[in-house]
Amino acid sequence: MKRFPTVVICFSCIALLGLFFYTVWFRFFYPYDLEWMEGGVLLHGLRVMEGKPLYAAPTSEFICFIYPPLYYWLLALGGYITELDYPVGRLVSIVGTLVAAWAIVSALRYEKAAWPIAFAGGVFFLSTYEDTGAFFDIVRGDGLLIALMAWSMVWVRRGRLILGGVLLCVAFMTKHNAAILGFPMMAWLWRYRSTKEAWIFASASAIPALLFTGYMEWSTDGFFLTYLLGVPAHHPFVAWRFLWLSHHEISSALILMSAFMIVLTSFRMLTEEDSKKALRFVLYMPILLLVLLLPTELEMLLSGIPISAVGSKMVGQIAIGVLLWTAVLPLLWWARHLPCREGTRFWLYCGTVLCFFSAIMRAHHGGYNNVLIPGMWAFSLWGAFAMHWVWTHHGLRILPAMLIPLQLFIARWNPDDFIPTAADYRGGEILMTRLAQIDGPIFAPHSPWYPVKVGQPPSAHLIAIWDIKHPTGPLAEHVRSLREDIENQRFAAILLANTKEDYGRKEHYRKTERLRLDEKPAQGRKKALMPKKGWPVRPQYLFFPK
User: Fold this and answer.
1) Residue 334: CB partners within 8 Å, gap ≥ 6?
2) Which helix (H) or strand (E) holds 154?
């Protein structure tokens, strides 16, 4: 009976791990987009392989995404070793995700957590597969980013400051926003170690990052920072996503662990010496539980607040955020006085900034669930820490043996929702056969890798066009080059997922064909070749010059 909790926890973790590997295996070799931006990312790797600049003036052939180049360099390296295609990028993402999960295990073991709890922490992170948009195994840089950020924290916590700083710099080269993680680590070193160690870490991370930025800015004639900072600075900011939606999405992915952490924090507060004062703060806990468990109902209730010139939906969205932070800020202020080990404070500092990092990215116009991955990583670690606290009380070990399997059971997903079907493969073959019959370049903004697969030159991805076309943006004027190419009928055909995108198409091209990608449409069955997550667009309309 003493081993019963360990056996139950390990068995449930192995089951979830099996579900993860089963899902990614049957997606790995799929030769088409699992998510609509995969092909656009592959274009960046192809661009590097061809020796062409990534950060340059936008053209109809290529517009760079608003990220640093490390992931694209790795794609090109994989392309030199083998053929550049989806499996190359997916392998990097899968390895990165598993490395990040192992970082949680390693961090917990360093903090003296038992193996079953540490194992559960890593699996908690993998269990957020569906909640993060199924981005753990696709051609995007998120898996690589979280692996680098995670091990940067692990090594700093262990005193390997130069290694931790270098890894954070490399994470910065994957997504520049990762630089924000340096602040909590430096603050912790400053307070709990020494000024010297804080400066060692800062130097190891900031100096190479500044040198890298300076070189990239010089070698691209100023386009590097224009893409990374200038372009997104003109994008809208969705405040309610930052105020509460992102935090709700992160915490609800591990809903039992989140609820348990709220209850555990309340218990810790009430057992402090000044329990009467603590009671005032514990009264905020029901607010957190309401936002976690009943966000829709709470938003509808708050939307009834009468505010002139503001729509009721907007009132509800903002009001729930204000209510949430009315509870969170006093709790954070009080929690700083709770006695805990310096290692625990390190992970509280870093995890809080990771959640803040995710919230900012989610609030960016177009921010999808994949940007929540750092926050999911932090909550996975925190949830395991809460289980570790209970595990140390031998009489309570049955509680983790109940909560961990139940949490993983709730977090499971249906692999059929993510694994391509035979119809998807047939639809892709139909599309590739038709594209191969077109003599000349094909403009395919929704799926620009597909023309490349049949030997045609690439074209700009639609999300990159949207990034730069904001009227006040620094590169908005370059959209006219795309319009000019369409006006001059440079493309032999235009392949779209809908009939909305224009840029002069309606005037100079005619719709002549809608591809039938479903051989035998069946009621209730998902359309063939549809992305498995993200924006559900599939190429099906062909337009030819008038």
Assistant:
1) 269, 278, 281
2) helix 142-157
Q: Cα(269)–Cα(329) distance, rounded to whole angstroms? A: 15
pLDDT for the residue numbered 341: 81
| CB-based contacts of 181, cutoff 8 Å, min separation 6 | 149, 152, 153, 168, 171, 350, 353, 354, 357
The answer to whether 224 and 216 have CB atoms below 8 angstroms apart is yes
Give yes or no for a contact between 146 and 100, defined as CB atoms under 8 angstroms apart.
yes
Where residue 1 falls among pLDDT bands split at 50, 70, 90?
Answer: low
Q: How far apart are CA 440 and CA 438, in angstroms?
A: 6
Cβ-proximal residues to 109 (8 Å cutoff; 6+ apart), any chain? 115, 118
What span, in angstroms and rounded, lies between the C-alpha atoms of 306 and 202? 49
Answer whether residue 522 shows pLDDT above 90: no
Q: What is the DSSP string of 368-408?
A: -GGGGHHHHHHHHHHHHHHHHHHHTSGGGTHHHHHHHHHHH
So what's the pLDDT on residue 313? 74
Cβ 247 vs Cβ 355: under 8 Å: yes
Backbone angles phi, psi at 442, to 5 degrees: -120, 125
Q: Note the pTM of the prediction, 2 decimals.
A: 0.94
Residue closest to 70 by CA, chosen among 141, 147, 174, 168: 174
d(Cα 285, Cα 264) in Å, to the nearest integer? 11
| Residue whose entry in the numeric block shows the structure tokens 């995108």 | 501
Contact 525, 423 (CB under 8 A): yes
User: 142 vs 123, 338, 400, CA distance in Å?
Assistant: 18, 34, 30
Tokens matching residue 312: 């009721």
Residue 153 CB coordination number (10 Å): 27
d(CA 289, CA 282): 12
**pLDDT at site 366:** 83
